Amino acid sequence: MKKDYLNDCPDYLKDFLFYMETIKGRSPRTVDGYYIDLRSFIRFLMIKNSVVSSDLDYSEIKIDSADFSLIKNATRQDAMEFLSEFQRNHDNQAKARSRKVSAIRSFYKYLTVSAGKLTENPMLNLETPSLKKALPKFLTLEQALELLTHVETNFTERDYCIITLFLNCGMRLSELCGINISDIHDNRLKLLGKGNKERIVYLNNSCLTAIDNYLAVLNSGEKIKRVDKNALFLNNRGQRIGPRRVEQIVEECLQKAGLGGMGISPHKLRHTAATLLYQDAGVDIRVLKELLGHESLSTTEIYTHVSNRQIEDASNKSPLKNVRQKKSEKT
Question: 194 catalytic, yes or no?
Answer without folding.
Answer: yes
